[in-house]
Amino acid sequence: MPPVALAVTAPPARPVIWRITDRTTFQRLRADGRRRRRGPLSVVSAPTTPVGAPARVAFTVSRTAGGAVARNRIRRRLRAATRELARAGSLPEGAYLIGASAEVAEMSWPDLVATLTELVDEVAR
């Protein structure tokens, strides 16, 4: 009997999104960034210096959103929504600072993704 080969499929590739960690990018976002806010979400965007680099994202959640557990839950939702935007091709290259308040924890998933998509589209123009 001939050997049987198992077909191994690779897991779907995650979109490339880098974290913003350097001070100069945060300063550029503050000085030159385009800002938009809708409800509990805000997005600040600045173009990247190296053209063709993947999107770079940072998240900010105020302490008024609750304790560390609540803030981390909001950050995880924002990361997942950002990943979904990147997977759909709706996250152009650039640096983004995404801010949220406590109401983001209560938003439905489709509303969160739709609002974030609209804000990113507005600041990326």
Task: Describe the structure using short key phrases.
125 residues, alpha/beta, Ribosomal Protein S5, domain 2, 3 helices
Quick structural gist:
The protein is α/β, with parallel strands linked by helices and 125 residues long.
Can you walk through the features of this model?
It is a single chain. The protein has 125 residues and is α/β, with parallel strands linked by helices. The protein has a single domain, classed as 2-Layer Sandwich (Ribosomal Protein S5, domain 2). It has helices at 23-32, 68-88, 109-124; strands at residues 18-19, 34-38, 41-46, 56-61, 95-100. It has a five-stranded mixed sheet with strand order 1-4-5-3-2, sandwiched between helices. Helix 2 crosses helix 3 (109-124). The longest helix is centred in the middle third of the chain and has 21 residues, at 68-88. It is globular. It starts with 17 loop residues before the first strand and ends with a helix.
